[in-house]
Amino acid sequence: MANLTGARKDNKGLFFVKDTNSNLQFGLDFTDYLKATDAISSASVTISTVSGDAAPLRLPTDASTDVTVSGGNTVFVRLSGGSIQNVYTIKVTIVTSQGDTDSRSFRIKVQEKLL
Description:
Elements: E1 8-10, E2 13-18, E3 23-29, E4 40-47, E5 57-58, H1 63-66, E6 67-70, E7 74-81, E8 87-96, E9 101-110
Parallel strand pairs: 2-9
Antiparallel strand pairs: 1-2, 3-7, 4-8, 5-7, 6-7, 8-9
């Protein structure tokens, strides 16, 4: 199973709760899916859209700075925005040093976060 620190799970899979005003980084560890001699060489991210969304979830800057690979096994994605009550699917696609391609998805539920 993917390692998503702070993730919650429901009947559809893993998700994070994010406040619309937060600008946060989420990490997806691919260690369990990689061969011992392989490493992530590049990663890309696709964010689902919601029809009529006035403030969509997005990469705050651009993919070159908001999607990073760390340690050859973990992809970090920085996200901002999103409209309250919308649920977005984040698809992370990797290419490994041995030429394999793989994808995993998680969801972001946008809600006001209270103490």
